[in-house]
Every structure is written in structure tokens, then in C-alpha cells.
Amino acid sequence: xxxxxxxxxxxxxxxxxxxxxxLAAFAGAAAAQDAAVPNRESAVEIRKQFMTDLDTLQSxxxxxxxxxxxxxxAWRPAPGVRSVGEAFMHVASEFYVFTPMAYGAQRSPVxxxxxxxxxxxxxxxxxxxxxxxxxxxxxxxxxxxxxxPADSLGGTRKLFGxxxxxVQTTLGMSGDLHEHLGQLIAYARMNGVKPxxxx
Length: 199
Prior knowledge:
Elements: H1 8-27, H2 40-67, H3 84-96, H4 98-102, H5 115-122, H6 127-147, E1 156-159, E2 162-165, H7 166-190
Helix pairs in contact: 1-7, 2-6, 2-7, 3-6, 3-7
């Protein structure tokens, strides 16, 4: 858990390291020369399991977003680190952009290309905005993934300048989204908010 006294430089280094880990998850299996490329049937099953995982993730993101009081959405653990609302909006941005791209689907035009567009999107971080974009972004990603033809799920696809299988991109996206869920659980605990599913 990140201590509130973490300085801005360290928080930038942590964000850079988290990005590197996410990209490494995509690239990890590519290092193995004999990495298996899933056939059509296996790829369809992988998508099915990933979409089930996405349902679970979304239910928890929404439960946490609802549980946070509106006045806590601007709280951040340290200067330069995403606030509660910005962290939720980052998840929504992944639903609009990177999750569809991981399956070869089109990113949403809701977030134009470029880092400034992502930054602007994440700054729309009030509770009503978070709930709206979490729901709409998730609907977009589910529709996009379901629409990808089964025949195009096998083999490899270009992403971030490399060739990756659906196994690699699925593990990369799943790992990244679970990481953000853990981040938001930590934010909740630091603010005395109990995750609704926690016993």
C-alpha cells in the first residue's frame, strides 16, 4: 500500500514501473520460441473466460465506486498520484481503448488519440461521471469483444509494435485491470471505505 508521504518523483517512478510490468505481461510469452498459438476453438474459450472475468471486475469496480462518498473522489495518496476519481476513470479509459484493442477491435472515439486526451478524460472524475463512464465504457468493451469474429481470434495480432496471441493480450489486460482493482481497494481502505463484498 502506498504511504501518503510518497513524493512525486517516486510516484512517477512507480507509474512508469507499473506500465513496464503491464507491457511485459503482453510480451512475456513472446520470449519463448515455441510459444503455442491457440486455434479457433481455444481462442473462443479464452474470450469466453475473459468476458466472465470482466463481468466480475466490473461488478467490483461499480460496487467500490458506489461505496466511495462523493467528497472522497478528489482524494489522492500523494501529490502527482491519481485521485480516487481519476483511478476509476483510468479503468473506464481501458474499457474504451486498450481492452478492445487487445482483441483486434476498434478503440472508441470517446477518447481521441494522444496522452493529452487520456489526461483530459481522466480529469472528468466526479462520482456521477465515474459511474456513467464505467458503465458505458464497459458496455463498449463487451460489445466490441463479442463482435470480433471467431475466425480472427486465433493466430497473432499486432499491438504496441509486436505480434501477440490472444493468450498474451488477455493475460496482459486481465492483470492490468486486477492491478487497478487492488489499487482502488487500497484507496478505499485508506479512506475507511469497506469493499462491499468484503466479509
